Amino acid sequence: MTLANLDLTQDVKKIFSELGIKPESYTGGTLAVRSPITGQEIGRLPEITATDAAAAIEKAHAAFLEWRLVPAPKRGELVRLLGEELRASKEALGRLVSIEVGKITSEGLGEVQEMIDICDFAVGLSRQLYGLTIATERADHRMMETWHPLGAIGIISAFNFPVAVWSWNAALALVCGNATVWKPSEKTPLTALATQAIFERALSRYVAERNTAPENLSTLLIGGREIGEVLVDHEKVPLVSATGSTAMGRAVGPRLAQRFARSLLELGGNNAAIVAPTADLDLTLRGVAFAAMGTAGQRCTTLRRLFVHDSVYETLVPRLAKAYQSVTIGNPLEGGNLVGPLIDKAAFEKMQKALEAAKFAGGKVTGGERVNQDNAADAYYVRPAIIEMPTQTGPVLEETFAPILYVMKYSDFEDALRLHNDVPQGLSSSIFTNDMREAETFLSDRGSDCGIANVNIGPSGAEIGGAFGGEKETGGGRESGSDAWKAYMRRATNTLNYGRTLPLAQGVKFDVI
């Protein structure tokens, strides 16, 4: 079937019917949603007002006041049921992700699997929200550290991972005793509606099993920038986890700081890899290809800069260019295609602007042109671009959310490492080498300055077990695994005196009697 004849509205209608979502929730509203696969409008959602959004946040705060009293393992049971419901709806939600974002089928399903994985992680975590027992200098005293729920957690998600990022935050926030308030991207609200329906199924099962849970534990706010501003500015929201551009982070961070609220920022990433003389070039080729071209270059961890040692440059780069010319581009719902569309026309125009800037700076461009897909005028399919650059300059220093890979030659490892770190962003990174010294140096204090540093795999495709996030203009936040849960709780240091005297710390004497 050609794209011109593909009616994705019927897919959306079928999926929403299966999830029990009424048509008035996604039709007849003011927020138009288009699938990048065809450019076709697939929904028109009602938007919440700023006043109603503020009222919804108040209700979420009230839900938090009840939910924090539920024992953490009981809270984990809700997240376990959410994981079960996601498993049951994996095919439907995965297809909806592909329809709304343009991801190939395996990536759409993979995003839902990521949600399932974080639910599994969070269930185990619900029995491990541990503190510390700390040595005290005072006899007959005990000092300890405890962790407590924080409040109604704000979640602002981006279009490229429209549901996985919500789950990273929500699964942890819920087991930590918080409510959540979610403002999804205006480009991908349909997947948010579906996810909220799946959560409500899990919640219904939880209550049916005679567990206690308040209403408004998970709140969805559909709307534009002004709704995000309500969430950021509301005094009952102690933490906002915001995923998006560095420009967005610069707007969100100071507003939260102004009222002394916390921010968890996951922003831009101008990610790089180094290909050393000893690299396995077959493995490198596969790793680079996925990291640079997967999701049409629209991951925050997409590989955008590649430093190749001059001894292997003439072997690897022509092979990469050949792969770029032969990669299959087209309807992501059809098997065999590896690269789907850009999200919209604006993304395409930014890509073309970057390509022109690279040419002006002396870059040799292979690919980057628009690929005609069945005369779908409003769908923006492009051939991924590989650009051989003389130096790291101009557009190489900026993140362009498109499949552009800048390739540069190096001869000295220390120079490559310096150039690797010489960008404002610091999300993800990798090195391809079989030299132990290079690998260990890359991971050391003087190596990669990113939040994620890999050896012999690309910078993209992180698992949920590790904390996800980066440094510098990437924002410094951490989501998902490891001890990222601590961001969703408040820490208290407790000292308990079980003796009959009152010794003061540091030997202070203050005898009033």
From TrEMBL:
Q: Which family does it belong to?
A: Belongs to the aldehyde dehydrogenase family.
Question: What does the record give as the active site?
Answer: E266
Coiled-coil portions:
none
- The identity of this protein, by name, is aldehyde dehydrogenase (NAD(+))
Q: Which InterPro entries match?
A: Ald_DH/histidinol_DH, Ald_DH_C, Ald_DH_CS_GLU, Ald_DH_N, Aldehyde_DH_dom, ALDH7A1-like
A Pfam family annotated for this UniProt entry: Aldedh
**Originating species:** Pseudorhizobium banfieldiae
Provide the assembly information: Homotetramer.
This entry's Gene Ontology molecular function terms read:
aldehyde dehydrogenase (NAD+) activity
Q: Where would I find the Aldehyde dehydrogenase domain in this sequence?
A: 29-491
